């Protein structure tokens, strides 16, 4: 990402990083984490996204991968206390 690419994204709806609802392939995710030697994973989203983050964290633990998974809340419903 560059400054030029992101300087006006707050004026547009949706996400430039792409997103999808539905399942995911945990083995594919774990392979990517291993391949890229990821040690910190930041996940931004709502309830479903955080359930997925928990599943990834549990899979990392089960596969003895030392990865810190951090969930960052994001909402379009304005339902996170103390935001405004």
Number of helices: 3
Shape: globular
The end-to-end distance, rounded to whole angstroms, is 28 Å
The description of the largest β-sheet is: 2 strands, parallel
Description:
With 84 residues, the chain is α+β, with helices and mostly antiparallel strands. The protein is built from three helices and two strands, in the order ααβαβ. The chain has helices at residues 3-6, 26-35, 47-62, and strands at residues 40-45, 68-73. A two-stranded parallel ribbon has the order 1-2. The longest helix has 16 residues, at 47-62. It is globular, with a radius of gyration of 15 Å. The protein starts with a helix and ends in an 11-residue tail after the last strand.
Offer a quick outline of the entry.
This protein has three helices and two strands, in the order H-H-E-H-E. By secondary structure, the protein is α+β, with helices and mostly antiparallel strands.
Summarize the helices and strands and which ones pair or pack:
Layout: H1 3-6, H2 26-35, E1 40-45, H3 47-62, E2 68-73
Structural features:
3 helices; globular; 36% helix; 84 residues; alpha+beta
């Amino acid at each position: 990402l560059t400054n030029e690419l992101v300087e006006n994204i707050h004026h547009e709806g949706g996400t430039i990083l792409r997103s999808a609802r539905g399942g995911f392939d945990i083995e594919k995710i774990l392979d990517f984490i291993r391949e890229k030697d990821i040690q910190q994973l930041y996940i931004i989203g709502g309830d479903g996204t955080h359930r997925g983050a928990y599943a990834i964290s549990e899979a990392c633990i089960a596969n003895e991968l030392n990865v810190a998974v951090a969930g960052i809340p994001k909402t379009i419903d304005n339902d996170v206390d103390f935001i405004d």
